[in-house]
């Protein structure tokens, strides 16, 4: 028999639960549809409902709602084709694509979603080797001075790059007692000169930029910018002191080209670095492949006519000027946001995924519009152009256990890959590229 004390307690418990459930349903009723979707995918217990997530690799096996929304289209060029003379950033299609062979025409396939004019999905056109090259670029070459990263606020990062230091320690070239095996905190560095030198180095590189006509177009913005000094967040003495190998897991973003000022969500127009040529060539091929793409978004409008979306952004005008590389650990996410810092909102935003699969949510111009959810796997390319360029989007979940076999540390015959593969065992990398002007 339950004692009166327990009975009493359980009544209290019941009341508490009732209160909690009431406040939960109140929160739900006041949450935007975008927030509700984010909560679903972030939830660990109960697990998310994945029923309506679009899997572009399995449209035939999807439910009728998804089948009715998704349309397969053909790109204007086969990706990698126009790069024949240069280094092909997508990789040689005579190599295997993961575990299987490339099928002729496979690099011309893309998908659109009828309710989302301006969103284009290109299923992984890369070979494993090409993916590995880009991942190496993101960790070894892009995550270092002079590109800014989230770590710069609090840590004095080695000029050779955190990754290179991490690699030398793992390879036994530096032993653990070496003073370089601990990354100093900026808050404790009294000699700040070296840091300020870095800033002037950046300016130096900008003045050496070889694009005079562009500099003219941007002159007005630049002059305004130079008058407004943007305050940087202050370094904290409360962040942990870590080794390079620990700190590399705390890397969340770096910026390419025009450096981004996160507190004001604007570009530092006086801090422009040359955009990496290989990523430029990659995005130029993508922009070329979608130039002139036209598809029906509504069978009938109020005048009983078909409605179309045409992407007419001329690839000749495409100039990748800024990029963000996002480094996600498995528990990370990015909340709903719109990328609207660019002056040119006509140009597409091109986004590449590598490593673990994520859930990508993309909605409308407000959070009141329920987003659609889709899987982004390693190598997939997503494009936001036209009306979709100003839509809310986010990544609420990285899916554990989804790293492709070919990215695992010991897979393949590249001995250098092991350390990158170890990092990728708990990561997803996203490279997204924009035109600012
Ligand atoms: O990680 C992604 O796929 C999206 C990243 C993103 O939305 C952003 O950086 O603005």
From TrEMBL:
Ligand binding (Fe cation): 337, 339, 393
Compositional bias annotation for Basic residues: 1-13
Keyword Cytoplasm: no
Record text on cofactor binding: Binds 1 Fe(2+) ion per subunit.
One function term, GO molecular function aspect: dioxygenase activity
GO cellular component: cytoplasm; nucleus
Cofactor: Fe(2+)
Protein name per Swiss-Prot or TrEMBL: Fe2OG dioxygenase domain-containing protein
Protein source organism: Rhizophagus clarus
Organism placement in taxonomy: Eukaryota, Fungi, Fungi incertae sedis, Mucoromycota, Glomeromycotina
């Amino acid at each position: 028999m339950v004692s009166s004390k327990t009975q009493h307690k359980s009544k209290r418990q019941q009341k508490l639960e009732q209160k909690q459930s009431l406040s939960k349903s109140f929160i739900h009723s006041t949450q935007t549809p975008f927030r509700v979707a984010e909560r679903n995918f972030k939830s660990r217990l109960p697990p998310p409902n994945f029923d309506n997530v679009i899997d572009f690799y399995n449209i035939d096996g999807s439910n009728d709602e998804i089948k009715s929304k998704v349309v397969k289209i053909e790109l204007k060029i086969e990706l990698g084709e126009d790069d024949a003379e240069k280094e092909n950033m997508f990789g040689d299609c005579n190599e295997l694509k993961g575990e299987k062979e490339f099928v002729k025409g496979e690099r011309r396939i893309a998908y659109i979603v009828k309710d989302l004019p301006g969103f284009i999905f290109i299923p992984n056109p890369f070979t494993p080797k090409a993916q590995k090259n880009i991942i190496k670029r993101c960790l070894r070459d892009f995550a270092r001075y002079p590109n800014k990263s989230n770590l710069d606020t609090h840590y004095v990062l080695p000029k050779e790059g955190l990754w290179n230091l991490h690699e030398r320690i793992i390879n036994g070239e530096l032993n653990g007692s070496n003073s370089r095996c601990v990354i100093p905190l900026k808050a404790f560095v009294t000699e700040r000169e070296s840091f300020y030198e870095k800033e002037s180095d950046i300016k130096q590189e900008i003045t050496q930029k070889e694009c005079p006509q562009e500099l003219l177009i941007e002159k007005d913005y630049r002059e305004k910018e130079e008058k407004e000094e943007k305050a940087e967040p202050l370094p904290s003495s409360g962040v942990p002191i870590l080794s390079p190998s620990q700190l590399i897991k705390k890397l969340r973003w770096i910026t390419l080209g025009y450096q981004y000022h996160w507190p004001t969500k604007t570009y530092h127009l006086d801090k422009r670095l040359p955009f990496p040529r290989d990523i430029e060539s990659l995005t130029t091929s993508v922009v070329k492949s979608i130039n002139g793409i036209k598809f029906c978004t509504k069978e009938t409008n109020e005048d009983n006519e078909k409605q179309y979306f045409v992407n007419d952004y001329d690839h000749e005008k495409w100039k990748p000027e800024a990029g963000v590389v996002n480094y996600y650990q498995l528990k990370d996410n990015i909340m709903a946001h719109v990328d609207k810092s660019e002056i040119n909102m006509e140009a597409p935003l091109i986004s590449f995924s590598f490593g673990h699969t994520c859930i990508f949510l993309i909605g409308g111009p407000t959070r009141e519009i329920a987003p659609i959810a889709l899987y982004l796997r390693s190598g997939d390319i997503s494009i936001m152009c036209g009306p979709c360029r100003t839509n809310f989007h986010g990544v609420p979940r990285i899916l554990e256990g989804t790293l492709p076999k070919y990215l695992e540390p010991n897979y393949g015959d590249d001995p250098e890959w092991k350390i990158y593969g170890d990092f990728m065992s708990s990561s997803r990398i996203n490279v997204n590229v924009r035109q600012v002007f």
